[in-house]
Design brief:
single chain, about 130 residues, alpha+beta, GTP Cyclohydrolase I, domain 2, four-stranded antiparallel β-sheet, 3 helices
Length: about 130
């Protein structure tokens, strides 16, 4: 069976996530990578038969910039949950959230959280194209 993988890397946003008060006040740059696996290759040259990556970018941007989370793990989870709910044709999903200038002396220059999940087709009847 053929599959399609949509990969968006380096989605950059300014937001105010973090545990420390100065992170809430000043904010920082967050970089998000998203990988979405679809169970089929679109047969038509039509955006309605696939995932619109511009809409994925907007959804990620809203999750990153509209709310504040203390942990990037929570942010990654919220992004993943939104994408799962918005795109039922996705069979596997990976979300990486990078915080390039994390204020942590032992973190060197970047802190990253990765969340991966797979939905089994048997448990998820929504994975077939309609």
């Amino acid at each position: 069976m053929s599959q399609t993988r949509l990969v968006l890397r380096g989605l950059s946003f300014h937001a105010h996530h973090g545990y420390r008060p100065e992170e809430a006040l000043l904010g920082a740059r967050f970089v998000v990578d998203v990988e979405m696996q679809l169970g089929w290759v679109p047969q038509a040259d039509d955006l309605a038969h696939t995932v619109d990556y511009a809409q994925v970018y907007e959804a990620v941007g809203e999750e990153v910039t509209q709310r504040r989370y203390r942990l990037i793990e929570t942010l990654a989870d919220r992004i993943a949950e939104r994408l799962w709910q918005s795109y039922p044709q996705v069979e596997a999903l990976t979300v990486r959230v990078h915080k390039p200038q994390a204020p942590c002396p032992v973190c060197s220059t970047m802190s990253t959280w990765r969340l991966s999940a797979t939905v089994l087709p048997i448990a998820n009847p929504r994975c077939s194209p309609t």
